[in-house]
Automatic annotation (TrEMBL):
<keyword id="KW-0574">Periplasm</keyword>
<dbReference type="Pfam" id="PF00497">
    <property type="entry name" value="SBP_bac_3"/>
</dbReference>
<feature type="signal peptide">
    <location>
        <begin position="1"/>
        <end position="21"/>
    </location>
</feature>
<protein>
    <submittedName>
        <fullName>ABC transporter substrate-binding protein</fullName>
    </submittedName>
</protein>
<comment type="similarity">
    <text>Belongs to the bacterial solute-binding protein 3 family.</text>
</comment>
<dbReference type="InterPro" id="IPR005768">
    <property type="entry name" value="Lys_Arg_Orn-bd"/>
</dbReference>
<dbReference type="InterPro" id="IPR001638">
    <property type="entry name" value="Solute-binding_3/MltF_N"/>
</dbReference>
<keyword id="KW-0813">Transport</keyword>
<keyword id="KW-0732">Signal</keyword>
<feature type="domain" description="Solute-binding protein family 3/N-terminal">
    <location>
        <begin position="23"/>
        <end position="250"/>
    </location>
</feature>
Amino acid sequence: MKKAFVLAALAMTATAFGAQADTVRFGIDGNYPPFAKQGADGKLHGFDVDIAYALCAAMKASCEIVPQDWDGLIPALNANKFDAILSSMSITDERKKAVDFTNKYYNTPSRMIAKAGTKVDQAAFKGKKIGALRASTQEKFAKDFWGKSGATIVSYGKAPEGFLDLKSGRIDGMFVDSVVGDADFLKTAQGKGFAFVGPEYSDSKYFGYGAGIAVKKGNKQLTERLNQAIAQIRKDGSYKKVQDKYFSFNVYGN
């Protein structure tokens, strides 16, 4: 009888912890290099993807990457298409109304990309067009900062689409995460003649407190597991190994 009770208790524990010994599914937008991009093998690769696998190793869980376009990430999470969003999503008070967040796993500023030498202030883009990723913190800031001063904000489902329009002259600036803008545009052939212009933008009112992993509201168990895993990979060197593969600076921030 005692043995049966112990086995039942173990079964209940396994059920309670769900994916702890099984699989954690991460939703990731694959149109955001160097954080995530589809490779020649058809799979997603990048900083976010490697961090996901490092976290799963720390949690002793299998890892499944589920590709999902940016503006569908939160709806897909709430529809149980995956367990968490690990896709460079800034922790903001507005998003906290829809999802819960872990602690940050990196923090980088946003910047404007335009023709080299372009002047940037609140009125600089009056009558002009600025691109931003749809449903991003950059889009919200651009609408409030430049949009209210007469600029038209053009929203894109994928950042590379905005870079193409910037290169062709269909928009006058592209407001993006600085790492994405540098790696996916300025350091490529199509970025010739363009540059970061103006200051770095990191106002927490818009850009939050760094990028975190989003989980469904109320899922405290998974949130805590992920927080513990983030702390572990920061401590054991796994995080730095992934960071150094993609960046030459401290992407975690202060």
